[in-house]
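SAMPLE LOG
Freezer: B-3
Tube label: C17
Construct: single chain, 273 aa
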Amino acid sequence: MSANFIGVTGLPRAGSTLLCQMLAEHPEIHCEGHSSPLCNSLLAMRRIVSDDQFFLSQLDNSFDASYAHLTSAMRGFLRGWYHDCVKGAVVDKNRAWLHAIELLLHLAPEAKLVVCVRELGQIYGSIEAQHQRTILVDFVDHLADYDRLGRADMLFAKDRAIGAPLMSLHAVQDLPAEVQKRLYFVRFEDLVERPAACMSHLFAWLGMAPFEIDPQRLTVGVHESDSHYHMKYSHRQSERVAAPRRHDIPPRIQAQIQTACAWFYELYYPAHK
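STRUCTURE (predicted):
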């Protein structure tokens, strides 16, 4: 694979499905749209090899050669995943890419990440609204028995659907400046209100040729599985961009989110009241 690598990552319910749908419109970009196991596979490979006794036994006397073998193998796995891509850039979607950005850049130095964010109360509201539509089915991590405040607390826990990628976002400020330059942040609200302008700016940042998106005539691609997430996180695609209705969030829950995540609002929503 000689195509430039573009990762799509960020928060849940923040527009990654729509973003990938619009990235796929560009004639120079290969984008399958659904979440990819590539990042998870590379992380699992690192864990397995790091515990392999044969590999470890080589490090004392032939570290450089053994490490070069591992580098070549993991780089080959990354490049080989999209072996049939004939376009200038390939998009791979996985929320774990932000957490693994330095690993990715070691394997693909040209890689860039597009990070999707959204006002946190509306992310919680989107998940809660979908749960109410499917209330007879539990979450994968069994959150249905909680009350709304308790469910919000759990969703924002550091190992849960909102909390885990939020921690990766919080850690961005600790990355070296050269790594941070590889990150492009897209606010969901901007994407749905000004899709053509947002995509035009993004294409330029990616180094792609100018291309104008028609927000009212989008190609609908392969739909990602929702049953895998117990129908709690919808990935529906549409032929046109339309801003969703705002979710009414209980004041106590909204205040708790904004207090606990003040850093997020300072960085991405400084004007939010």
